[in-house]
Amino acid sequence: QVATVTEYGAFIKIPGCRKQGLVHRTHMSSCRVDKPSEIVDVGDKVWVKLIGKEMKDDKLKLSLSMKVVNQGTGKDLDPNNVSLDQDERKKRMFRDYTSQKITLEAVLNTVCKKCGCKGHFAKECFVQPGGTKYSLIPEEEEEEVAAAGFEREKKTTLADNPSKKRKK
């Protein structure tokens, strides 16, 4: 019987036992559950399976699952715990690889073994043998080129405006 419902799951009273167990929201259904209160209410009778027990601070914590039990008949749908093992493997597969990511600085400091230019790897090289070589523009030159382009653009727009007035 459901004793309380929280945002992360539901606590279940086990008949013939003083302990309560937690059905985490990930073990309520095979579908994603955002709000456990949409699945169960306090006082509902549900079928559960004991999937884990843990001693923490001299207290026994019971983990229960509803998704591996048929809620109509109470039949165990996962008698050999195959689906639970698969869920555990899925959790282990998602690791934090942020420390191993290549940063932009690391790519910029590389030199292509194929063409000898900076800023890309040989597998990303587009240079044909004997073709034009391209490399990165240093930051100072890049700012000067952008400023010169802006000045040219300004002059062309000023020159275009008087010609439009003459046509009218």
From TrEMBL:
Segments forming domain S1 motif: 1-67
According to the UniProt record, where is the region Disordered?
Answer: 145-168
Which intervals hold domain CCHC-type? Answer: 112-125
Q: Which domain of life is it from?
A: Eukaryota
Question: Record's Gene Ontology CC terms?
Answer: nucleolus; ribonucleoprotein complex
Q: What InterPro entries does the record tag this protein with?
A: NA-bd_OB-fold, S1_domain, Znf_CCHC
Pfam families assigned = S1 (PF00575)
Q: Give the matching PROSITE patterns.
A: S1 (PS50126), ZF_CCHC (PS50158)
- Residues spanning the membrane: none
Localization in the cell: Nucleus, Nucleolus
Q: What is its main location?
A: nucleus
* Name of this chain's protein: Zinc finger CCHC domain-containing protein 17
User: From what organism does this protein derive?
Assistant: Eurypyga helias
